[in-house]
Design a protein that fits this description.
The protein is α+β, with helices and mostly antiparallel strands and 208 residues long. The protein has one domain: Gcn5-related N-acetyltransferase (GNAT) (Aminopeptidase), CATH 3.40.630. Helices cover 36% and strands 30% of the residues. It has an eight-stranded mixed sheet with strand order 1-2-3-4-5-6-8-7, sandwiched between helices. Strand 3 and strand 4 form a beta hairpin. The protein is globular, with a radius of gyration of 16 Å. 34% of the residues are buried.
């Protein structure tokens, strides 16, 4: 789940689903509760390595709170959380992906995501991140989008590399996870870089 910015977006984002060749990305619904809980419970061994919110006591109450907060954040322009679903199996929750503002004046934002353990290694994170980057630059008119990736999370680093994000540096002891401070690498893409990269993303079939 993202850390929600206190800065509102300049305008509302439509709640229509966004699609990729394989995926549907859509705002969360209250009926998603059981599917999200199941995805978290089945993936907790992996999620708790990297994410401060992921722990074995995270259950229905916490997920229900996230769904409520997600709807409020969307309507207020603070963050835009999307459920990741397969277009051929829309009932199975594959993970979450979000974009949220970090500076309104500089038109910057950040993308964060997690993928359920049984769906990793299939390019889902790459495809979903490509589409949300497109939303970020085209619909939200951002100038710069960042990814923060925990050191050691090689799978997420590969997503950033494949999409062409630039690694800009190291954020030392940035996030506290299970009592340990974790370093994160910082990756970024600028609007003009996205305009060049998008044609390749389409060739790779990450975008329609």
């Amino acid at each position: 789940m993202p850390i929600l910015s206190l800065l509102p977006m300049r305008r509302a984002l439509p709640t229509d689903p966004r699609h990729t060749p394989r995926l549907e990305l859509r705002p969360f619904k209250r009926r998603d509760l059981d599917a999200v809980v199941e995805a978290i419970e089945s993936s907790i061994d992996d999620l708790e390595l990297w994410l401060p919110w992921a722990n074995r006591s995270y259950g229905r109450a916490e997920t229900n709170r996230f769904l409520r907060e997600s709807a409020a954040a969307w309507s207020e322009g603070r963050a835009f959380d999307l459920a990741i679903r397969s277009r051929v199996d829309p009932e199975t929750h594959l993970g979450n992906i979000s974009v949220w503002p970090t500076s309104r004046r500089e038109r910057t934002g950040e993308i964060g995501y997690w993928i359920r353990s049984t769906a990793t290694g299939q390019g889902i994170a790459t495809e979903a991140t490509a589409r949300v980057a497109e939303v970020s630059f085209d619909e939200l008119e951002l100038h710069r989008v960042t990814l923060r990736i925990a050191i050691g999370n090689r799978a997420s680093e590969r997503v950033a590399e494949k999409l062409g994000f630039t690694k800009e540096g190291l954020l030392r002891k940035e996030v506290l996870v299970r009592g340990h401070w974790m370093d994160h690498s910082l990756w970024a893409m600028l609007d003009e870089e996205f305009r060049v990269a998008r044609d390749r993303w389409r060739e790779e079939k990450w975008l329609e």
